[in-house]
Amino acid sequence: MKIGFIYSGQGAQYHGMGKELYETSKTFSKTIDEASEALGWDMKELLFNEASSLNETEFTQPAVLALSTAIDRLLREEGIIPEMVAGLSLGEYSALVASGALKFDEALRLVQKRGRWMTEAVPSGEGAMAAVMNVDRQIIEQTCEEVSRSHGVVIAANYNMPGQIVISGETAAVEEAQQRLSEQPKSKVVRLNVSGPFHTPLLAPAADKLETALSHLAIHEMSIPVVSNVDGHVISSAEEIAPTLVKQIKSPVYWEECVQTMIEKGIDTFVEVGPGKALRSFVKKIDRKVAVFNVENSQTFEKLISKIKEYEETQNDK
């Protein structure tokens, strides 16, 4: 068994996430409290209070990072150590924290700023995203190119899995591309409930601010290989991390390629660490032969522990 951890991105958050683990695990609660101290506000209140600002990007990002890191620490406490890591968009920061490249407290403060800068880059209502299912990749890319010439910026921004690509850009352009792509046979196009045109050149102002912030941050060598969203390749050195993160904020996410790289490197068991199970479903669509789990609460945590013990007993019996 060769385990890879994959970390949840923005959009996976939900009110109450981690509450049970906070009440039952000292390691988990200590990590969440550590996040509160680093940020100067109450992370518990954000996670567990339905009236909180959890779905506002500048709060969503540190919340998902905090939860993912807390679960990562729980798993390591049980001796479950990944041999390779990756994360979807925001989740790449969780992966870098897990690898030792970024300090937890500094990463929390950085992603809160990242969320704010992303929101400021394009005023609310001027950007949009939509998931396109069952349409050929080349048709989506060609449609986006054609629409961009007449209606504004729209690109294929997230290559999630075979049969699902997310388009992103200026609202009018996304709407026009949606209309054209929905006319394709068997297609399904769903507008996403997001606040901006993420992973497009429209986020360049946020990328510039992120670049400045990263220049003041200590970035360390990785103890575990990290696969980048930007090209689906393993990040080669600590020096490559800052430019990769700057590019990532305004460039497409090649998630399918990330997963394929991990499989090529021998990963046969994927664990989605953090809220939700979207990445688990993506991996299953990419390669049905690998084992995939998600850990977001006590039940899923215990299920993974049980499966790993079963595997170890089987190996010992051989």
UniProtKB/TrEMBL annotation:
Pfam families named in the record: Acyl_transf_1 (PF00698)
Broad class of enzyme this protein falls into: transferase
Domain Malonyl-CoA:ACP transacylase (MAT): 6-308
Name the UniProt record assigns to this protein: Malonyl CoA-acyl carrier protein transacylase
Domain of life of the organism encoding this protein: Bacteria
Keyword Protease attached: no
Catalysed reaction equations from the record: holo-[ACP] + malonyl-CoA = malonyl-[ACP] + CoA
Matches recorded under SUPFAM superfamilies: FabD/lysophospholipase-like, Probable ACP-binding domain of malonyl-CoA ACP transacylase
GO molecular function, one term: [acyl-carrier-protein] S-malonyltransferase activity
InterPro entries in UniProt: Ac_transferase_dom_sf (IPR001227), Acyl_transferase_dom (IPR014043), Acyl_Trfase/lysoPLipase (IPR016035), Mal-CoA-ACP_Trans/PKS_FabD (IPR050858), Malonyl_CoA-ACP_transAc (IPR024925), Malonyl_CoA-ACP_transAc_FabD (IPR004410), Malonyl_transacylase_ACP-bd (IPR016036)
Keywords linked to the UniProt accession: Acyltransferase, Transferase
Any one GO cellular component localisation term in the record: cytosol
